[in-house]
Amino acid sequence: MHLLEVDSLKTYYYTRKGIVKAVDGVNLHIDKREIVGVAGESGCGKTTLAMTIMRLLPPEARILSGKILFHGEDLLSKTEEEMREIRWGKISMIFQHSMNALNPVLTIERQMIDAIRAHDRKLTKAEAAVKARELFKMVGLDPDRIKGYQHEFSGGMRQRVMIAMALAADPELLIADEPTTGLDVITQSQILELLRRLKDELGLSIMIITHDLAVIAEVCDRVSIMYAGKVVEIADVVTLYKRPKHPYTYLLINAFPSIKSRRRRLEEIKGEPPRLVNPPPGCRFHPRCPYATEECRAKEPSLVEVEPGHYVACHYAHKLNFIMER
Amino acid sequence: MGLREYAIRRAIECVVLLILATTLNFFIFRLMPGNPLAMYIENPMFKAETKQLLIKRFGLDRPLWEQFLIYFKNMFTGYYGISFRYLKPVSELIFGPRLFNTVVLMMSSTLLAVLLGVIFGVVSAWRRGTKVDVSSLVVGLVLYSMPVFWLGLLILLVFAYYFGILPFGGTITRGLHHQNLLHYIADYLWHLLAPMTTLTLINFGSYLLIVRNTMLDVLTQDYMLTAVAIGVDKRTLLFSYAMRNAMLPLVTIVAINLAFVMSGAVITETVFSWYGMGRLIYSSVMERDYPVLEATFWFIAVMVIIANFIADIVYAYLDPRIRY
Of A55, A325, B148, B260, which is least packed with CB atoms within 10 Å of its CB? Predict the structure, then answer.
């Protein structure tokens, strides 16, 4: 049994402009002690996927169908009361824009104590404070600064604080939404290093949501590539970079610079990601795909296992063999 | 910089401000059209000697700079001169029943309005889009836009004229002999009810709208989502995590309003014949009673400075980011 398994999940937003199909039939799974990356362009539904798992969607969003199995139990059938225990207690999250995720008028200590005590009411404030200091040490922060306020911490430090907060109730799964966006490269790699260390030390499973393939390459074991609300390819990191099967994955990797390859112009992917109110018929990538045919315009490809553990949603997965330069 | 240094620096700034305000308060009246001589001393009934005597008595024969120095010294030593109209010391006019009545009226209505505004504002924001929210919003907007004299007259018409359960005005029933203090207080509160309700309702609207707006803003902040995800209980969420952030704009507005507690509400006091400071100021302006105006304006300036000082300190206490 997987730790978390998402099965044909659909989450739509019912807005005045129409129905936004942000997550439209997503499958993925995460095992224990595994770091899984979810990558894709902005607006492809990555964050909605995370918020659906956490059941923290805004009122205009609706989960239409699918399952989210955590230890084999469907989270979608849980009551709000049960979810409150699971949220943060079992699955915690580092939110996007975590620069603003801390309350500006309360001390970090106060917020950490509240988080610890929200899931372990037997602990006294003093005991929770001790645990908060330990968590601070664990993420590489000076415990003496715990009485400070959010604005007294730098971007990288705030991200560490958020990670410490996320660990407050000893979760099994951590969802990190763009954990390194907005940080300089050195801080980025320190944060990723920290996540990897936490996985090893605490036996944590981590889901990293990012638009940055460099982040994926650095820490993830497996990757799901999302495009326009759908998963187009799943593979382990090495396979994905060496033998991508989906044209989108291939173009996405080529859009990033590599240290090893010779100097070249970076290839951008032409066109824009589709608006999810009215996505194109057939394969959603066909308007931007250099290999698209009539079949792609008419029929939607399903996610097929092309080799063990490597899933691709492309009609031509068996024919396309991309040769990577690196 | 700690809170203490911040408070000390703000206090010094306040003293400077007070000196500037005091200076301005002197010259503003000299710049006004008309002068005390024309209004009061140039009385055709007075003899020339009498006029000379009065001019000398009030020190109006001295050069402006000397008048200013005397004024300046007097303001800070508690001597506010003699009223032209009442021929009584100004301090007697101000520090008496007028000030008491006004403070009672203004304090009670401001506190009630803030309390109701915060409660309904928070509930509105929390239940955004529901019937509770929409109806408080409509009521708030209507009250906010309503002219105060109109509401006051309406209350008088309905409750005093039609139903006869409230008095028409004044602070106590004239000619009534009160048996004891309790009886007196009851009579006073009965008279207070209508003007207090009027002012509370008028102010309630604006407080509700402000609290609702800032709460809505706070509730959509990322840190609130974090707190919800963490599972912080609802009371802590609303009162510690949200309210403390939402309080900030409110503190400023309450402070500014409290500064005018002493000056009273001119219109409301007039409608309800409330014997307070607002009416004293109004009649003093009409009659050019310079000493009374100088003193009351000066007190308003002092109150505004003090209230702002307190607001700044409360602000800095509530929000650790604020250390100017």
Answer: A325
